[in-house]
Amino acid sequence: KNNNTPATTAFGIVCDQQQPLNDLYYYLVMTPAGEYAIAETSLTQNDVFLTNNDTWAESDLISADAPSYRLGADCGNGTLTFYVDGQQVASVADDTYTDGSVGLLTWSGEEASSADVTFDDFVVTKLK
Fold first, then answer.
1. Considering the entire predicted model, what is its pTM?
2. What are the C-alpha distances in Å from 37 to residues 20, 21, 79, 120, 126?
3. Strands, E, within the chain: which ranges?
4. For site-directed labelling of 58, which of 41, 50, 52, 69 has its Cα 20 to 30 A away?
5. Structure confidence by residue, pLDDT tens digits, 59-108
């Protein structure tokens, strides 16, 4: 749910988080401005965006400033796929991390004074 959060706030899904090094994972995120990214964290460099030549991208499939969004992600078998409101926004192949924990992510951005989103009905299903 978008609680009138700033347009630069990113929120989404974390997958394949490595234990005990919690700083290693993938994230699939979007902003209320209609931007998205699929990225990989690393201990040796800044986050690497696996989509859009390592930059944020806009998608017409993401409604700008909607009151709520339904997010989904498939993380497995070397493929990461991000869905917003039932539409596939992006998909990439990467097998750096092949299993791990899942979770949710909210990031306010460097210039935002706040971030205000609410997650509910979070369901995890194992891919076959």
1. 0.92
2. 25, 22, 14, 21, 23
3. 10-17, 26-30, 35-40, 48-49, 57-58, 71-76, 79-84, 87-93, 101-107
4. 41
5. 999 999 999 999 999 998 899 999 999 999 999 999 999 899 999 999 98
